[in-house]
Input
Amino acid sequence: MSGSQIFIRSIGTSCEGLGIPAYANFDLAAAAPPENLTLLIGGTHGNEPATVVLLESFFQSSAWTALDGCPTIVLPLANPDGYKRGSRYNARGVDLNRNCGFNWHAESAEPPGPTPWSEPESQALRDFILAWRPAKIVSLHWALAELDADGPQSTALAQAMWAALDDAARRPYRLRVTELGRGQRRLQETYAICPGSLGQWCGYGLTYPDATAPAMITLELPYDPHAASRPDALPDAHLDEVRALWQRDSAGYLRAVEPGIHAMLTAACRFLQNH
Ligand SMILES: [Zn+2]
Output
């Protein structure tokens, strides 16, 4: 494996025929999925451009080159039609992060699609995950400012990513983990939030043929990268506010958050690599 080489393919196509690109530090034509694979996902919501830019900068960084021996795939743009429009949804107006086939709800607050997995972008991602069986999945969103671990199997990975940040880099975030086992009643509280999300499917609904389940982290980028601490509650308009900040000074936002994001992604890729 050569860390300086990038292998690319498309995992499928959007409603409007755009490719959904995958970048890897190993040959994606390989016959078998590598052990302890890490999958990094951005751009599920097309109006969260920082998630796309930060993943593209990651696979062009020295941190990526240094990942030798840690097989990693990056899908920076899971919703290319939405990104093109600056929309949260895909071209059919569906929220792809409510369209997954676990705990899917027709009455979801965000449009979940007519049925679970109804959208070509969701199907492509599902089939890619089932084929490659990543041990670790990190999905980037904007901007609830937290590291969110779905399922008890994800706690240790979230803690390793948190440990990769120094005190200053942690300030704009909070860490949320669960020690609850699958199927316990208190999970209903978890399930009420973001039904049909990728996090819930991967964290609670997905088991591979070898009976393992992936560690699933939703990495919500900072709302205010210079905050002294992450407030208990963010303003309802947090996404509009961070988008306005991005339009004023995207370079400043990136400069503030990129070191911490790259450190956490590196920690995720390296997690359990020598076991
Ligand atoms: Zn999002």
About this structure: The first strand starts at residue 7 and ends at 13. The radius of gyration is 17 Å.
